[in-house]
Amino acid sequence: MKEVCVITGGGSGMGLAAAKELGDEYQILITGRTIEKLQAAVEDLKMKGIEAEGFPCDVSDRRAVEKLAEYASSMGNIKVVIHAAGLSPNMGSAETIMRINAVGTVNVNEVFYGKVIQNGCIINVSSMSGHLVPKMVMPSKKYSLSTTNIELFLKKMMNRVSLFPKKHQSGVSYSISKNFVIWYAQMHAEKFAERGIRVFSISPGLFETPMADAERELSQGFVEKCAIKRYGRVEEIAYLFKVLSNEKAGYLTGIDILCDGGCIASGTKGLLKV
């Protein structure tokens, strides 16, 4: 029996592309909040000969993530978790974005910490936005509350967001939440290594996904400033997931990997206003 790869946010975009890329090596369990989207994605994967199942899950709900992990364990040994579920600035309120992106990351990592087998890995999807906002904006000194009091952590994050004008709050919440994802892997690498699990984050730039389509007006300026002046293809980052999840990359943990077409390297920080 093949080992299991769990992909949150697997119903479309990068998550679905990752399922297609890793489907020759693993049983795939994709998750998302929309049942219809999951069903369509599973049918697509099965048509390609991939063993795949769907499981509805809101990652901001701890009990829902626990049920997901229980079901994944019933399928076999969980070797890889790709946590790609998330909301962009125009997909929800500032608090909803923080709950899905930041609290969801804590839920997925803490629950699967006890489920992923030795030599497995958890890959958390951040964003280049986590690198763009000035450090003074980030309430990073409060990030550690996420491991002791998740509701107080959420309150402190939203207190910082509330300092900005209403029209910018969703964007600020998104950037803080993605910066937190980067921090999480860095701060918990040693803990996960005690169980023989690698944990790290990938920060995508601008890729051709439904989420990017919704942000097209804002993102075009970044594309023009990138070293590679185009949107990334989801197949490109899916291949990165595959390579990094392989045991041959077994010395890699606790780090964030930018896959942004050279946007950060090209000096795009001045384009993001908060």
TrEMBL record:
InterPro entries reported for this sequence: NAD(P)-bd_dom_sf, Sc_DH/Rdtase_CS, SDR_fam
Gene3D superfamilies recorded for this chain?
A: NAD(P)-binding Rossmann-like Domain
Q: What is this protein called?
A: SDR family NAD(P)-dependent oxidoreductase
Query: According to the lineage, what is the superkingdom?
Result: Bacteria
Species name for this entry? Trichococcus shcherbakoviae subsp. psychrophilus
**Record GO terms (molecular function):** oxidoreductase activity, acting on the CH-OH group of donors, NAD or NADP as acceptor
What family name appears in the similarity comment? Belongs to the short-chain dehydrogenases/reductases (SDR) family.
Q: Which Pfam families match?
A: adh_short (PF00106), adh_short_C2 (PF13561)
Instruction: Could you list this entry's UniProt keywords, alphabetically sorted.
Output: Oxidoreductase
